[in-house]
Amino acid sequence: MQCTSKMFNQTKHKSRIIHSWRVWAIYMVLAPNLSEEQVLKQACPSCDATQLCNCYSMGLDFIPLGLTGKITTLNLSHNRIKHIRSQDLQQAVNLRALLLQSNKISSIDKDSFHSLGKLELLDLSNNSLDHLSPEWFEHLFALQHLHLQGNSYRDLGESSPFSSLRNLSSLHLGNPWFSTIRQGNFEGIELLDKLWIDGGRLSQYGPGSLKSVKKINHMIINLRNTNVFSAIVRDLLYSVTWLEVREIKLEIEKKSLVQNSTLPFKIQKLTFKDASFTDQYISLLIILLKEITSLQELEAIDCMLEGKGNWDIKEIASSGQSFVETVSIINVMIQNFHLFFDLDGMESQINKLKRITIASSRVFMIPCKLAKSFSLLLYLDLHDNLLVNNRLNETICEDSWPSLQTLNLSQNSLKSLKKTAYFVTRLHKLINLDISQNNFGEIPDVCEWPKTLKYLNLSSTQIPKLTTCIPPTLEVLDVSANNLKEFGLQLPFLKELHLAKNHLKTLPGAAPIPNLVALSVRRNKLNGFSREEFESFRKMELLDASDNNFICSCEFLSFIHHQAGIAQVLVGWPDKYICDSPLAVRGVQVGAVHLSLMECHRSLMVSLLCALVVLVMLVLVAIGYKYHAVWYLRMTWAWLQAKRKPKRAPLKDICYDAFVSYSEHDSDWVENIMVRELEQACPPFRLCLHKRDFVPGKWIVDNIIDSIEKSHKTLFVLSEHFVQSEWCKYELDFSHFRLFDENNDAAILVLLEPIQSKAIPKRFCKLRRIMNTKTYLEWPLEEEQQEMFWENLKGALKS
């Protein structure tokens, strides 16, 4: 019922979006003209032919029309429904759960539920029913859970209203006015998992009324009448396994609880909750409960003892041995707890106990004499009390608790781990020790512990650093919620290690803990872990690394995605493993992140890119070399430099008639024939030769450009050698840029030997064009024609 209610409550706020008054105003106006399905949609918007129909707290005055066989769950709780009619639920034949609690239902037609043969849960609690009718339930053959508490009926009628409910598993009934249970009221019920009776004013109980129920696993009854309590206990001796009595104030009644009853009994556990006891009744209750030989466990929760332990020890001791093995006392208030007696004389009554819990009850000490009497006790829980180190010497004295295996001293006021360890060395069979939520702080390097100790809980004890004080015999160690930044203890037998809520940045090393099976590093400062770290724990079966701030690096993601069986090992995977960085994937589950090749191999990609750039540069250099790109660049630079100078030098700066450009292979003809012919002519011509007239130490390009600018003409002596000799070592060719860019007739071409324009390299495109468009002089081999050649050349130089 509780789980179903929670499910419906989740949609509570959605249903409240349409206010009740508005819904009903529309309904009252339009209802006459609407079909049943339309009416249903208006009255309960979330109930439109769906399996789950939630009409929680919508101000409904009646069950909506148009309910169909498709609906399996109908929540009509917290409305104003007063009456359930025969036809209201007639079509809802497939209902499994019907919630009608917290309405104002005061009457139900006898056949209202007849069509609900598949109903498993019916909640009619907190209404105004003043009686229960067997006719309501006679066709509910599948009903398992029935809630009838909080109505106004005072009894269950003359007969059983539940006689047809053969499959009933849980029944909750009663109210503040419920006062009478009669014989036969529970006829028809044979087996109940849970029976809850709110009988705060129950004063009349027909003996044998509950005997018809053959088995009840857990019964809860709110009860104040001691006489009724005794009668109910007698009836339940053979049927109930766990009886929980609430709000009772026990008073003196010496009548036996097992009057005229025969063995064997079935009741095993008895719980008192919110009850009130006196010292006198405690003594009597202990004696009376000894008669229930099947009783193994006693529990008192949120109770009050109006006394200080002044029990009738002699009478208790003379009444025989108790069969109870487990006693739990939780949050029991004793106003004068500091005056509580030491229970001297109770030793014979406690030597059979095996498990004791005394929690949240302000216990500050257990007398040594009493502690020595728990000869068979295996489990002792004293958490959330007032124990201090100075009193442990009395509580855990020599020869006390001789069989104790598990001790819980958590949530006390212990401050010295060394003293605590020393006292528990007196427990020679101790295996499990919980001393969590004490304030130990710094711990020493050396401590004494029981040699049998295997489990130690030191969580939430303000320990900043672990030392060799921790016993090496441990198989389970819990040091969660401390201030630890590292873990390096040598614990060869350790199988479980809990390091949650600390400040660890890496997994602990595997070498000191070779047998580790389970590790928890939840909520630390882990950024990730590597394949090597993970695989170093060879016996690891469970790893809880959830709720850390993971850096989703390529290495970490590659390990996570490719490690076989990682999902079976990681606790909370994948929901609790979230990336904190990079920023692009923050908040995304680790298992869902896939980084690109560039993001994962940035260094490699940069290296490859650099290598590619170098390769491209080498290719460009090779191409440039092949296609003389350097030459073009150098020519461009020279051209830019030349552009800064005046187009033509003033006449006063002209020093030469011609600048001669020629190949070294043709120097014999130029220097011995042409220079002699021209410089010895009348009048003589002044020629500029690079060997003779260039300024020493001056950059060759500047020499060339200056010489051309200071010459009236530029004379090119062309030959095959000229073309194939890098054009006079490239430096002389810089003159072409300026010369041909000016589009003048200052160039004179002399072909020393026949040469085709096609043989001239393409980079000298302007020279090729000049040879195709202008007249040039050819050096004749015949002597008779040479005179004409010299005349033409001299004429060209003078023009």
UniProtKB/TrEMBL annotation:
Gene3D superfamilies named among the record's database cross-references: Ribonuclease Inhibitor (3.80.10.10), Toll/interleukin-1 receptor homology (TIR) domain (3.40.50.10140)
Lineage per the UniProt record: Eukaryota, Metazoa, Chordata, Craniata, Vertebrata
Keywords noted in UniProt: Disulfide bond, Glycoprotein, Immunity, Inflammatory response, Innate immunity, Leucine-rich repeat, Membrane, NAD, Receptor, Repeat, Signal, Transmembrane, Transmembrane helix
Assembly: Binds MYD88 (via TIR domain).
Record-stated family: Belongs to the Toll-like receptor family.
GO cellular component terms, A-Z: plasma membrane; receptor complex
Localization (cell): Membrane
Main location per the UniProt record: membrane
Name this polypeptide is given: Toll-like receptor 2
Cystines in this chain: C47-C53, C368-C397, C447-C469
Membrane topology listed for this record: Single-pass type I membrane protein
Positions of the TIR domain: 654-797
Gene Ontology MF terms: transmembrane signaling receptor activity; triacyl lipopeptide binding
Transmembrane regions: 604-625
Natural source organism: Otus sunia
One BP annotation, GO: innate immune response
Function per UniProt: Cooperates with LY96 to mediate the innate immune response to bacterial lipoproteins and other microbial cell wall components. Cooperates with TLR1 or TLR6 to mediate the innate immune response to bacterial lipoproteins or lipopeptides. Acts via MYD88 and TRAF6, leading to NF-kappa-B activation, cytokine secretion and the inflammatory response.
